[in-house]
C-alpha cells in the first residue's frame, strides 16, 4: 500500500481538493485526483493509496448517492475523518466572455440545485449539462465545449478562466461534508464529540420494520444525525439505510445499539467512528438520564448481582 498517497474526486480544482488541503496530514502526502468517487475509493481498496477524500453529504441536496452506494457495496472501507466546507460557486468563463454570451453551462449534478434560482433569474435560457465534477466542468469550458461552469473561484487560475460572477448560492450557509476513507482498522479512541456511521439492511419488509431499527437507537438515547434510504438493486422496494449517529462505537449506548441491530438485521456494515468536524466536546448535547457509560455499567453490575443472588 502507498502510505504516502491520498486520492480525491478530481480533477485539480474541485471543492474536494480544497477540503483535503485543510487536513494537516495532506501537506505530507502525494495528492492524486481521480475521475470519479468509485475510482478514488477503489485506489484505496487496491492498495494504491492510503486514503481517499470524497463528498458524502450536502446541506442543500442531501446525501451524495455515489459515495453512499460505494461505501455500502464492494469491499469494506472505513471513515476516519470528516471535513465540512462552506460552498459558494463562481461562474467561470473564458476571458472576455460576457454574461449575455453564456448559452451553455455545466457543473457537477449536486451543484445544480444550489444555483437553480440564480440560473433562472440571470440565465433563464442557458442549457445545463452535467459534468463529472465542477472542476471537470471548468476544464470543458477551457476546451470550448461549454460557455461557463459553476465551480469554486479558486479553480479559475488552474484552467485559465476568469470568474464572471462570484458568491453564487441559492441557500445561505450552504456546506458540503467530505469523508476521509481508508481500509478497515481499529477506530481511533473516542474524543467525546464523535459520530458513528453504519449501513443497515432490513430483514424483510413488514409494518414497523424501519421503526424496529430506529428503536434500537432511541431506547438507548442515541441521537441520529442522518438516515437515508438507498435501493439495494434487488428490485423495487428493497432498500438499505445509511445512518449517522452521535457517539462512538466504544460508548456503551452506541455499542449496545449496534448489537441490537445486528440481532434483527441480516447485514450491518460498520463504516467507522470518527471525530465530528468543527464540534468541541463542550458543544455536545448532554446525555439523557440512564444512557451514560456509568449508567450502563451500573445496570450490568446490578444484573450480575441478581444472577448471583446478591441483588
Radius of gyration: 22 Å
> How would a textbook summarize the main sheet?
6 strands, mixed
> What sequence of helices (H) and strands (E) makes up the elements?
EHEHEEHEEEHEHEEEEHEEHEH
User: Which range does the strand content fall in?
Assistant: 25-35%
Which shape, going by the Cα principal axes?
elongated
Give a written overview of the molecule.
- There is one protein chain.
- The chain is built from 8 helices and 15 strands.
- The chain has 311 residues and is α/β, with parallel strands linked by helices.
- The strands form 3 sheets. Strands 1, 2, 3, 4, 5 and 11 form a 6-stranded mixed sheet that branches. A 5-stranded mixed sheet has the order 8-7-9-6-10.
- The longest helix is centred in the C-terminal third of the chain and has 15 residues, at 293-307.
- The termini are far apart.
- The model has no long low-confidence stretch (mean pLDDT 93).
Amino acid at each position: 500500500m502507498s502510505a504516502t498517497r491520498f486520492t480525491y474526486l478530481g480533477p485539480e480544482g474541485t471543492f474536494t481538493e480544497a477540503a483535503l488541503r485543510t487536513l494537516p496530514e495532506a501537506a505530507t502526502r502525494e495528492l492524486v485526483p481521480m475521475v470519479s468517487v468509485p475510482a478514488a475509493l477503489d485506489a484505496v481498496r487496491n492498495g494504491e493509496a492510503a486514503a481517499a477524500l470524497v463528498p458524502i453529504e450536502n446541506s442543500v441536496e442531501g446525501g451524495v448517492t455515489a459515495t453512499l452506494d460505494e461505501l455500502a457495496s464492494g469491499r469494506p472501507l472505513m471513515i476516519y475523518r470528516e471535513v465540512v466546507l462552506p460552498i459558494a460557486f463562481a461562474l467561470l468563463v473564458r476571458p472576455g466572455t460576457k454574461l449575455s454570451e453564456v448559452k451553455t453551462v455545466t457543473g457537477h449534478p449536486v451543484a445544480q440545485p444550489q444555483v437553480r434560482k440564480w440560473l433562472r433569474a440571470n440565465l433563464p435560457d442557458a442549457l445545463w449539462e452535467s459534468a463529472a465534477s465542477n472542476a471537470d466542468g471548468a476544464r470543458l469550458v477551457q476546451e470550448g465545449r461549454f460557455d461557463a461552469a459553476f465551480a469554486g473561484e479558486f479553480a479559475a487560475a488552474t484552467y485559465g478562466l476568469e470568474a464572471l460572477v462570484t458568491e453564487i448560492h441559492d441557500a445561505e450557509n450552504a456546506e458540503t461534508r467530505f469523508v476521509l476513507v481508508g481500509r478497515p482498522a481499529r477506530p481511533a479512541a473516542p474524543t467525546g464529540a464523535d459520530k458513528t456511521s453504519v449501513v443497515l439492511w432490513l430483514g424483510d419488509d413488514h409494518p414497523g420494520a424501519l421503526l424496529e431499527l430506529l428503536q434500537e437507537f432511541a431506547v438507548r438515547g442515541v441521537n441520529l444525525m442522518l438516515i437515508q434510504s438507498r435501493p439495494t438493486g434487488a428490485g423495487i422496494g428493497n432498500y438499505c439505510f445509511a445512518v449517522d449517529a452521535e457517539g462512538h462505537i466504544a460508548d456503551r449506548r452506541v455499542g449496545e445499539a449496534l448489537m441490537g441491530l445486528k440481532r434483527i438485521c441480516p447485514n450491518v456494515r460498520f463504516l467507522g467512528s470518527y471525530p465530528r468536524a468543527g464540534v468541541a466536546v463542550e458543544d455536545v448535547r448532554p446525555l439523557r438520564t440512564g444512557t451514560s457509560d456509568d449508567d450502563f455499567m451500573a445496570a450490568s453490575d446490578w444484573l450480575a448481582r441478581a444472577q448471583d443472588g446478591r441483588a
